[in-house]
Amino acid sequence: MALDSSGAAYVIGWTKSTDFPTVNPIQSSLGGTQNAFVTKLNATGSALVYSTYLGGNCQFGLDIGIGITVDSSGNAYVVGQAGSSNFPLVNAVQTNAGRVNAFVAEINAAGSALVFSTYLGGSTNQNAFTVAVDSSGAIYVGGDAVSADFPVTANALQPTFGGSLTPL
């Protein structure tokens, strides 16, 4: 859960419910066995500002929302695990990775659209657990990866995989 400067609460999680409460949704129905959800409640907790499913067909597992933060403009940044081959992608940096991928997405302040949504991972399993955004808009994601081919930058602190290739 995260709070914005006005006290509105942003909640992320996952559901198997086909009648999960949606308000002004980006995705109005369950896309597979289990999808992530993102919900914003007003500052008093008396009403949903927006509430949406976020996920795909769950072909290789489940879509799970795990981490959320909000920037000073009210944009929500969400991360988790995507086991879907058709997770909703917008302005993606990575359109296909492995069977179970981390995902990173930004929802605009109105909750009406994905600014971007992307897979993040290699050919095996990875999860994103936490997300932060700084004042310049840089996004930081923390998680785990069991992929020797996880994408890293040229100046990575640890440029090669150093663990077991046994998926969790």
Fold topology:
Layout (H helix, E strand, L loop, with lengths): L1 E2 L5 E7 L19 E7 L6 E7 L9 E7 L5 E7 L18 E7 L6 E7 L5 E8 L5 E7 L23
Antiparallel strand pairs: 1-2, 2-3, 3-4, 5-6, 6-7, 7-8, 9-10
Structure description:
The chain has no helices and 10 strands. By secondary structure, it is mainly β. The protein has one domain. The strands form 3 sheets. It has a 4-stranded antiparallel β-sheet, with no helix packed on it. Strands 5-6-7-8 form a 4-stranded antiparallel β-sheet, with no helix packed on it. Strand 5 and strand 6 form a beta hairpin.
Mean pLDDT: 92
Helix and strand succession?
Answer: EEEEEEEEEE
Strand sequence of the main sheet, in spatial order?
A: 1-2-3-4
Number of domains: 1
Rg over CA atoms, rounded to whole Å, is 16 Å
Q: Tell me the overall shape.
A: globular
Oligomer: single chain
Q: What is the β-strand count?
A: 10
Portion in helices = under 10%
Poorly predicted residue ranges: none
Structural class: mainly beta
The rounded distance between the terminal residues' Cα atoms is 25 Å
**Beta-strand level of the residues, as a percent range?**
35-45%
**Helical segment count:** 0
**Biggest pleated-sheet summary:** 4 strands, antiparallel
